[in-house]
Structures are given as structure tokens and as C-alpha cells.
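Field guide to reading this record: the first block holds the primary sequence, the second block holds the structure written as C-alpha cells, and the final block holds curator observations. Each block starts with its own label. This record concerns Alpha/beta-hydrolase, catalogued under organism Apiospora kogelbergensis.

BLOCK 1 — SEQUENCE
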Amino acid sequence: MVSLLSRQPWKGLYVVFLVGKAIIRLPWLLMRYSLPSTRPLPEWSLRMSVIRDLVLQLHEYNVATLSNDMASVQADHERFPDRFALAAPADLHLYTGVLRPDAATQPAAVGGLWYPSPPRAGAFADDEKIALHVPGGAFVLAFGQDMHGRDVAGAMARHLGVSHTFVAQYRLSSAGGEDTRFPAALQDILTVYRYVLSLGVRPQNVLLSGDSAGGNLALALLRHLEATEEPLLPRPGGVLLWSPWVRVTASAGAEYAASRRAGTDSMLFSLLQWGTEAYLPGGGKTPVADEQLPYISPLHHPFRTRVPLFIHAGGAEVFYDDVRAFAGQMAAVDGNRVRFAETAIAGHDLIMSYAGLGLEAELEVVMSDARDFLSRAD
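BLOCK 2 — STRUCTURE
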């Protein structure tokens, strides 16, 4: 994908245009959505309706200029050196199966931020829980900024009793080149999972969490751990998936644009298309190998797992039908423990958007359900 707007001076001029557009548009949006009957959903607040529109505009900028926001993540890593950690690649023998290094894709160091502070290695209580969260972004946008991590970590601490949360920023496929396509990001998630375990926390006390494309990666890591006959790494105590992207195809943009929920989600379909073209092997121009397909697009590829799996979707998001179907497929596998939860008025990615949209009460209901489910799994 090539864009003239990704280059200066056109990028700068486009930014000026969008800022002016937003300033002019905001009063109109406030008037347009002043009545519940005029909002995408009557149950939505004015705040939710306006923010959805502004988020779509922001993603239009990202796609048009091919801006992945990685610079802001790196800036936050530098701003908070006391909470920053860089996970070195694990031993190469851990990257097996579809994660095998090749001439194009090699394991790399992965950076991230701890919340509220880094744990002291080897000083964990027997029942102390640690969360590893993988943020989304359609494989091409960075969401490892501190402001996003604070919301996720706060929810984990308040509702699930997590003492420390690590939010990792994996390699983005938007960086260009074959070395950032699948399985680069998945290699990174294994790297950071191994790093968390190396601190001495009990594996059963680790909660692996991921939203959107990050949920896809968290699920792929779980599949990888379960696919190893002689486990090279222990499994986590639980996995939480928030609006996971479970149907990743070469025509994802057009497919999701046709969804009956397209008018109530904050998902920009050209962003999904950019993501698939950047992430899929061969840019989506060739069929995905049979070995890789379940890891990339897990819908219709359920697997057996001993790890409790909590899956959430918003009733107003375009991923809803796929996420619910996948949860049902996983639940139908003998021995699996799966809980599917939904929030009727929520759009995409509740765990990342609840604070901005004023959905704290809705998140509390979901987290209470997750806590009860995971506690019964202990």
C-alpha cells in the first residue's frame, strides 16, 4: 500500500485539513446527536456517538498517511524508564512450528510498560496474579501507549486482583518488508510471555489478555502452547480475549463493511484491509498455508485447551457474529472451558474504550463475570 499523503509536505497539509474539519464538524455532531433517536443506537449517550465519529476520522488519517503511531509508543517508553522493560528473544528452540525463524523473520526484542511498577523478580506471593496484555491495532497500529495501558491495567487490578500488568508492543506489519509479516508479531508475543515467566511468577497465576488483533495474537500463542506435545513453556492460568479478530482474510475490508452492524461500530474497514495486506504472508495475494491458517484466522479452527478462555464482544461491533461463533466452536470441543460474554450497547474493544466512552459500569459487569469464571477454574 502506497500513499502520497504519507510523504511531506502532503502529510502536513492533510493534518491541517483534518484538524480544521474536526473543529467545524464537532458542533454539528453535537447538534446531530442531541436526540437519542438520531444516534447510531438510541441507547448510546451523546458522548459515545460523537466519539465514534471522531475515532473514525482519526483512523482515516492513519490509513491515508500510513501512520502507525509507533513513535508515540516509543516516546512513552522513554518517558517512563522506571516502568519500561525490554524482553530479549528467548532461546531459538522455543520458536517451533509456524513460529520457526527463517531468512525473513527472526525473533526480536520486545518493549513494553509495567503497571503500576515492575515486579521484583522472584518475590511473588503464591497467589499473586500478573497480567500480560497484547493491544490491538489491526496488526498495523500501535496501541502500547501509556494512556491505553493505564485503562487496561486499572481494570485488571480493580476487578481481577492483578498486582502487575505488562502491556507489550510487538512489531507492526506496517513497518514494511517481509520481516514484519506473520509470524513476526506472534514470535514477539512468545518472547514477552517467556520474559514474564522468567521473573518467577507461577504460570497458573499469569493471565494472558488481548484485544482485537492483540486477541488474535494471544489466542495464537495459546494454540502454539497447546500444539506442543512436550510443552516447552507452561500454559497461563487463564486467557481473556476482547473483541478478538478471528476472521482475517485477504478481503476483510469489504467483508466487514457489509456487516449489519457497520453503522454502529468505530471500525474503519479500510484499516482492516490495510492490516490484512500488511500482515498476511505474501500480502494476501497467495493462499495462506494450511499450517498457518488456524493461527492467522482461527474462526472454524477450534482446538482443545486446558486453559479457561473468556471471550467478550460488543453487541454493536462488526466482529460480533464471528466472535460469538468462534466462542461456540471452542466451547463445543470436549474438555474446553469457555465463557462468552457480550455487552449489548458496546462497539469494538470494550477493555480499551470503556474509560473514554463512559462505560465503566458495563465493564464492571463483564469483569465480575470474568472473575467468577476464572475463580471456578482454579
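BLOCK 3 — OBSERVATIONS
The mean pLDDT is 94.
Strands lie at 84-87, 110-115, 129-134, 162-169, 206-211, 238-242, 309-314, 338-343.
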